[in-house]
Amino acid sequence: MPDRSAVLAALDAVFDPKSGQGLAAAGLVQGLVVSEDRAGFVLEVAAGDTARYAPVRDAAEAALKAIPGIARVSVVLTAETAPAAKPARTASLSPQAVDQTRPKAPVPTDRPAHVRRVLAIASGKGGVGKSTVSVNLAAALAARGLSVGILDADVYGPSLPTMTGVSGKPEYRDGMMQPHLAHGLKLMSVGLLTAASDAMVWRGPMASQAITQMLTQTRWGTEDQPLDILVVDLPPGTGDVQLTLIQKTPLDGAVIVSTPQEVALADARRAHALFQKVGVPTLGLVENMSGDVFGRGGGAAEAERLGVPFLGDLPLVAALRHAGDAGAPLVASNPDGDIARRFAVVAARMADVLGI
Ligand SMILES: Nc1ncnc2c1ncn2[C@@H]1O[C@H](COP(=O)(O)OP(=O)(O)OP(=O)(O)O)[C@@H](O)[C@H]1O
């Protein structure tokens, strides 16, 4: 395995154009990961400086690649948001400090330009089909004539590139990342910017910074043609990473995906509670993989218990999995099929809840 200090020394041979120091000395190397045959880090620069630092990122990647034993490298360029006030270190917490640790409503300053609504697709549990639902629901909303984008923020397993067949780093133009276009959707994924294995080790603040960058520095829409809906595919779970993300992302609502088993529904309940805490309305619950194996109806009953709309159920069918593996959402590749019809129902109910 490559030596960490050798990696830092290599990065110090790349200069920060602002301070003239090496990148490590300048404090620009965050979250360095060195393992087996790969190395990567987050290059954190001041807000507005990302275009200027794109060549620095490329130089840092080249410097890492030149280290013997390193085959895969990834440098994610992120911009700082407004400097966070550091709480004073005191022996006991003041009431204000205690209050600071409580979840807050999202910070509205991070709103992406020319995007009408930002919606999260969340699940309390991994593997329940959150990404499958995100992609197909986005396609169903697009089929209603809306302009729709997807931001795959699932740092634990970005699957949008596979599910939509897109690859390659996004292009930078005029200081903004251009989303990929496929199946009538605008697409951006954490998986297009970094190796999935690197993103997985990100802590909450780092993940949220990368996601804020993808949110605010992607050309989702223009003044003349704003994006109607941006669907954000969140990482599964209800831990710190998710909390930080939903606090930092200006969400207008959330859709929770669950399978019908009680254990998954209990997690869906926790996800709903998390959104409630930060003041993001739950637009509804979708039951996925319903049918013989897992049962049916648990989602509708749970939605009623939570007092949120039930948006619909989707059966466990091999075609959905195959379409995902093949890189074309089933709703787009078979728009007249049973699954497309079910997603159209979910999209219609959602549009109804949103009043669009
Ligand atoms: N209704 C369904 N019928 C059949 N297969 C499905 C269905 N929904 C999802 N799948 C398959 O289940 C697997 C997990 O789905 P997906 O990746 O969408 O879940 P996820 O909740 O986003 O997972 P993770 O939490 O790991 O990101 C995928 O292989 C997908 O194709």
TrEMBL record:
The keyword Nucleotide-binding applies. Residues 86-110 are annotated as: Disordered. Keywords: ATP-binding, Hydrolase, Iron, Iron-sulfur, Metal-binding, Nucleotide-binding. ATP binds at G124, K125, G126, G127, V128, G129, K130, S131. Homodimer. Binds and transfers iron-sulfur (Fe-S) clusters to target apoproteins. Can hydrolyze ATP. This is Iron-sulfur cluster carrier protein.
